[in-house]
Amino acid sequence: MSRVLIVGAGLTGSLCAYVLKRVLQSKAQFVVWDKARGAGGRMSTSRPPDPTSHSADLGAQYITATAAYSQSHSNFYTELLSAGLLKSLDCHIEGLQHKEGNKNYVTPLGTSSVVKHFLSESGADLYLEYHVTGLRRCGASWKVERKGGNEKFDAVVLTIPVPQILQLQGDLGNLLSVQQREQLESVRYSSRFAIALFFSPDVVFSFSWGARYVTDSHCIRYIAVDNKKRSSDTPGLGPSLVVHTSVPFGLEHLENDKDAIQPIILQELQRLLPDLPQPVSIKFQKWRYSQVLTSVPNCPGHMTILEQPLLICGGDAFTHSNFDGCVESALSVCRALQFLLDVKQNISL
Fold this sequence. Notes:
By secondary structure, the protein is of the alpha/beta class. It has 11 helices and 23 strands.
């Protein structure tokens, strides 16, 4: 049985594990590594230090499906809706531009619940705080190095951001063609900061909207009452507020420390919402790789670096930066991996 490692427990990684398990079933063992303490990646849901507040989505806020993707990816949407992990967005979002035919969904249990669902359904072995540092070809397999050890796998799928792929030590750099390297180096991401503010159960906000796109601020672009946005108010829990900065502000201050940036954002938030009560606690997040601005050109959804032993890159950088882009990439990775594993099996016969 082939051992397949998926690096990255974000949306694409979880979808790869889910789709590959459905297609290959018992032909392979799937393992997922992620350097973080929890699964989710950019679909991150943060729990408050004090359990008396609602959780907050620090990354992706809602999922927008076009009419075409609602149809072509209907099995994914139907499964999540049936499981209660997706529901139609029905709160008021100021400044939201709605396009004809699009459907907006929220995640009642937080965006990370979608990732965790696909990982659970895949049956993959998940290892958190496994930080991959290098890949070395070892005969017909890969020796994957991480902080604290290494293991061998027959195939590796990289779903981490492209700059982190290019930073991997070992043989990867020598295996990339000139064209592949140029394509990967052309990928561009937006950067931003996010802050979650958690409030006590007695707090009631004076504004009626569930979320708001801000146009009159030098640093804040988006504010959401997360529990209201999800329509998931739980009695006895205080509200949570999520703030996202603009991309220009994020890029300008990307290398600054939290202690320098957080007060600027909070001061601006106070200007925008002068009646906002004091939060019980605050969580700060820097998204160095927030959304893909420029993806790999003319790409089928993945990039095969080596066929034997198999090394494939996937993720929204190889499609486009949203839920359906991750689904498209996972399906593309699955088709490539299934074909190459079948070829390998036939050769061995």
